[in-house]
Amino acid sequence: MAEQPSPDFRDLFHRGQLTIGISELSRMTGVSPRQLRYWQKKGYIIPKNEDEPGRARIYTMKMVIKAAAMSNLLQTGYTLKAAAAQVDERMRPAQTMYRVLFGRYQGFEVADDGQLLVDLGTFDPDPTQELFAKLVNDQPKFILKAKNQ
């Protein structure tokens, strides 16, 4: 049976718990808090706690990356709208990969040879099998194992 990921691991990466405030975001990106609030008003960045009016804005790492990338594009001549669209398009593959991996990740187990096997859950075409991944010479290899009932 695969070890369950620690709650800290899942909470940090899956639920957006790595956050910073608007002042830190401003310092990191060189964008004024006033400008960041404008970006939020336009819907280009969204604070994690947007549904809590009156509370200090906090941003996930995804929004930090987006704001920094938008700031860089603005400095090269993009308009705000074009910069936001370009960043969204560039982030799509990473977001898809994140959702696939964290949606499937069930934990890990250590094989008899000491190698880590990442448990990716039930193999959809055959629910009696579980899908695992491991690294062989730094390359991912996939393994199907009979599901333990």
UniProtKB/TrEMBL annotation:
CDD domains registered for this protein in UniProt: HTH_GlnR-like
Say which domain of life the source belongs to: Bacteria
UniProt cross-references to Gene3D superfamilies, sorted A to Z: 1.10.1660.10
Q: Which residues form the signal peptide?
A: none
Q: Where is the HTH merR-type domain?
A: 19-89
Name of the protein: MerR family transcriptional regulator
Q: Which organism is it from?
A: Lactiplantibacillus brownii
